[in-house]
Structure to design on (269 residues):
């Protein structure tokens, strides 16, 4: 699932501003 | 504490209300005051006609961009929900894939002017006729009806924040790996929602009315998927090359 949702995964990894 | 689950104290519920509400306000895209100031800005007839005469693929792309922008704020909201980032990555993705558009639709009531049946879109308030070029009149009319009925509940920002979190933490989504963990978070959020509704002295069955919105949201999202699929069948290259990558990831 992570592979198919790279952008969402990236957004989740980014620290909250 | 007789009216709450024995494992959650009032202080814990108050804290959850506070944290969720703060997360909602920090990520809600538009402040109510900003929207209120813009409420007089409605599209003029020639502007409405200009949207109506756009080719369907151009209007679809514009709406996909707007939805994607709103979803990015929902992702930020999810990240700030107490316990969300402690879930496994699979479940974070499952919950957002299934629930992010539902939260966008819930949040839409903040951008909705019931009196004029219009929603803040692309810089001004737009009625359903603005979206005619999409070719999904039934879906658009249902989305407007949903926003109107959400507005009629007059939810406070606290209530809206907790209801949004409750929707995102739906434990019955398919493919969850740690369902029990999500269930616990959702139950706690529901208690906090109940707590805040009581605190705000709402005795009009607001919680039951909100529970009824869950199935309406699911139906709207599955109809969005059906309409997208029909559009994609006619314009596969437009979706592939012009739609935002996040939108394609979530709804592809």
């Amino acid at each position: 699932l992570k592979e198919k949702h790279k952008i969402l995964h990236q957004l989740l990894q980014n620290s909250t501003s | 504490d007789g009216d709450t689950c024995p494992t959650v104290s009032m202080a814990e519920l108050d804290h959850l209300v506070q944290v969720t509400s703060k997360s909602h306000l920090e990520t809600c895209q538009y402040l109510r005051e900003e929207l209120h100031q813009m409420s007089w800005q409605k599209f003029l007839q020639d502007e409405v006609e200009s949207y109506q005469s756009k080719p369907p693929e151009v209007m679809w792309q514009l709406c996909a961009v707007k939805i994607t922008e709103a979803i990015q704020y929902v992702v930020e909201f999810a990240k700030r929900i107490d316990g969300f980032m402690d879930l496994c990555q699979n479940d974070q993705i499952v919950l957002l894939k299934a629930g992010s558009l539902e939260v966008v639709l819930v949040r839409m009531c903040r951008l909705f002017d019931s009196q004029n049946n219009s929603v803040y879109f692309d810089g001004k308030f737009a009625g359903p006729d603005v979206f005619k070029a999409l070719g999904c009149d039934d879906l658009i009319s249902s989305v407007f009806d949903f926003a109107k009925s959400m507005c009629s509940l007059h939810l406070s920002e606290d209530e809206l924040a907790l209801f949004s979190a409750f929707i995102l933490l739906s434990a019955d989504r398919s493919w969850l790996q740690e369902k029990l963990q999500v269930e616990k978070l959702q139950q706690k959020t529901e208690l906090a929602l109940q707590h805040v509704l009581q605190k705000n002295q709402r005795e009009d069955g607001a919680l039951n009315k909100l529970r009824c919105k869950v199935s309406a949201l699911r139906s709207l999202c599955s109809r969005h998927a059906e309409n997208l699929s029909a559009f994609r069948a006619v314009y596969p290259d437009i979706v592939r090359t012009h739609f935002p990558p996040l939108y394609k990831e979530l709804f592809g």
About this structure: The longest helix of chain A spans residues 6-13. The helical segments of chain A are 6-13. Chain A has a mean pLDDT of 89.
